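B., you asked whether I could sanity-check this one before it goes into the benchmark set. Here's the sequence:
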Amino acid sequence: MSKNRLGMQSLLNSIDINQLELNEAFNYRDELLADKKVENIGTVDTNGIIQYINPALNLLLNFNSNDIEGKSIFEIIKYFIHPNDQEHTKLAIIKCIKTPSSEKIQSRIKNKDGIYLWIEFILYPILGDNDNVNGLFYGTHDITEKKLQEKEKLISQEHFKNIFYQSPIATAIISMDKKIINVNQQFCLLTGYSQEDFQSSSILDIIHPEDILNNKENMKNLINGHIKQHQAEKRYIHNNGKIIWVKVALKLIHDKLGHPIHFICSIQEINRKTRP
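And here's what the prediction gave me:
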């Protein structure tokens, strides 16, 4: 075992895990020390001088960790951290050392190919006698894939919003307890209510009393999986008190795990002359 490794293990063993709430980081301490993971760890002294970086970091950044040890972490940040993330990364390090407090931040770091990866930094102060801060321990975790998934989700949500609000069909999103979550402009025009009118309202509030029981049954059948989609003609009550006949299409939406999350309700007015 190298001198650096011995020094690192001594530092880790001296940390009061209970006091610093390090359970999450140190559940895999042995694997980290053996460099069996791509996850990276290191220590910095109170002046920001890097005392140790595990060799696994070479795989990500393609440099010799011996060339980095002894240098200021703030100088390293200027080279490897994305310009937009440098300031909050520096502030988190300073706060962790001076407060002292544990910190968790997300920053983009440039890899050996010049590509920025999203990295989560977990920072912990190393406490000595009388709770004096002797330095800083950090661990990193690559969250690039998670960030890409979040971005794709946001794009998908934005795409759905555009379709929802611009749709020529009156559409409402209904919660599992039949509350109206959102409606588009066409739904407002057809029923005579504003979006503010629908806030905290139930879809049952605008359905004719004689059609409510049937509506409840079909929602229940959708939840139980007895039907995939419900379509029917029913009466809605316009804001002016008049009854309008509509063709309703009701569908239950599920998340990726198959759990129901809300209903999508689309309505189209039926020519009143064809109805009694």
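One thing to flag: Strands lie at 40-44, 50-53, 103-110, 116-127, 133-142, 170-174, 180-183, 229-237, 243-254, 260-269. Otherwise nothing jumped out at me.
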